Amino acid sequence: MDYFKNGLKNYFKINKVAVIFLIVCLAVIFLSSFIASGIQSDGWKVEVTDLRDATNEGTKEVVTVTDGVTTVETEAIEGKVVSGILFKPKAASAENPLPAVVLTHGYLNNREMQLQNAIELARRGFVVLTVDREGHGNYENTGDTGAMMATSGLYDSVKYVYNLDYVDKDKIGISGHSMGGYTTAVTLAQDVQLGLVSAGLMQAWSTFITAGADVDVGFLKAYDDEFFFTTEENGGTISREWLTTDQAKEFVGETGDSVVNKGIYVNGQLVETEGGQEVDGAFRVIYEIDGVHPQNHCSVEGANAVVNFFYSAFGTPNGYEYIPETNQTWWVKEMFSLIGLIAFFALIFPMVSLLLRIPFFRSLAGKQTVSADGTLVWTDNALPEAKPLKGIQKNLTYWLGAIGIALFSGFTIQSICTEYGDKWFPNTQLYPQDTTNWVAMWAVCVALFSVAVILFFRFVNGAINKLRYKEQSSSYTENPFAAAKLQTGFTGLVKTFVLALVVVGLLLALLFLNWAIWKVDFRIWTLAVKVFDLGVFLPTIVRYSVFFGIFFIISAIFNENYRAKNIPEWASILINVFFNIIGVLLVVAIQYGTFTTTGEMWQPDMALGYIVLFPMIPILAIATVISRRMSAKTGNIWLGAFINTMLFTLITCTNTAASFAYVMG
Fold first, then answer.
1. What is the pLDDT of residues 499-557, one digit of tens each?
2. Residues forming a β-bridge with 578
3. Which residues are paired to 50 by β-bridges?
4. Is the CA virtual torsion 534, 539, 540, 543 positive or negative?
5. Are strands 46-66 and 69-89 parallel, antiparallel or unpaired?
6. What is the pTM of this model?
């Protein structure tokens, strides 16, 4: 008993820092989520519900006039929401029905990407439903249409909202971003007969099909858009010139030189509007905001435009006062979600420290002995000793290898994405995700190139050392793969894998618990750790993890290979972070530096490709830190490689689109 008490006391004494760190991370996660939830729900005056496979039924009388004969028919309205988040202001009731807006996202995104607009509309008294389109988020691809052009989800969700007794059936609007904007245009055209939709705003989509005579319609565009708002007029116009084009002028009915940005047009005439007041008559409007295509849904100016459009279409909801469009809180919620995201990743470090001290995993961290006074003492496993970074030979090896790999990682993206990705790794039912395939292929190519560089410099250094040091050359030649050796052999490798699985499993449990309590996850713009259907996604995640595992294992070896005795650990980590992200960051910077300066892209065929890699930049940085710190705790590269593979494959696979249904098993 005394031995047990001493052991427990010693355990907490040794792990005091880790325990405190763990408690702080959990406290930050729950506190930031609590605040984010309060902002998202306008101080809990809006009820937020996660809808999955929700259905309802209703009817609508449809009046048609044919050859002077009026016919009234009752149409069945069958509503369905496969995956959505419903924001219901508590003032909404059957006695006080409120206007409603259904929002959807663009290609490769999900329902959460419209939270900016959902939060701002809901706090102003609108019922809001933000939904996944088919092939995205938690809505599987059930047809034979690629995820890019899949439009299912929006109109069925409009019908669901129409059937809610607390929704004003004469004031239902829709809006979608990018390919969701296309879905908005299609839905407006589909709805001409039924007339469920009263207003539609197309975000980052430039083509209008048709709509009912009394429907308000608008465009929201970025000043520079990577995909749309270009024409062949006058030898070709680019996005920033679109307001002067015939296409834009015909849409609003303008007869002058240019469409007035954010001007409300009724029958081709500009009308005066007042904040929060419904415009008399069906109107047209174009909102042009600063930024580029993916910024529409992460922009104060973008939220301003969305709110202004639906205020103009429906007026201020009954029981609510007008809130100026500039008064926004969504970005505060986003900041607290970011704080939660940082704490979520930080939680890995104390969690691993504590797990490594329990009997089953203890051998991965070192050996336990008992001192003369009965206290427990651990001797940690240590990484192979690094040598000082000194001399021309060592410096050239160190820096040239890192620069070469960094440049290769950045400047091969275009070729792999546009030329070889589909050839080497085409979409199939087993690997159904449109962009994950080429990203995985790029990751493997970078990993293999890194191995080639490491082996090349090892060979060169070995040859030079033989010439310089003769028989003592082996004392100067370093093994770049030494950190990959496990002190406890195959058993240790299995235990390491199990430990990584436990860590990621606990993180997921926390994610789902946090969502269940607060209906918020961890995110910033396009980088998100979100809830998902584990049974649906898990087999696909496992299959993709093979490819990302190659990358993260070799990346971990690369991270440890770039370790010098005379450079502090924090400096080594920063150096590795820099070289792991600089290649991708460089090509993205060139693309958008050129685009925002001239209005035309450096590599037009990578308009989508570099957007896909936006979250990859912080992921590579975070993975580098995890890799280095896990190696320091265990004396080898495997734990960090396994955690990174599991966690970041999961994040990648649950935040993109699939053009086939997911295969179970």
1. 999 999 999 999 999 999 999 999 999 999 999 999 999 999 999 999 999 999 999 99
2. none
3. 85
4. positive
5. antiparallel
6. 0.94
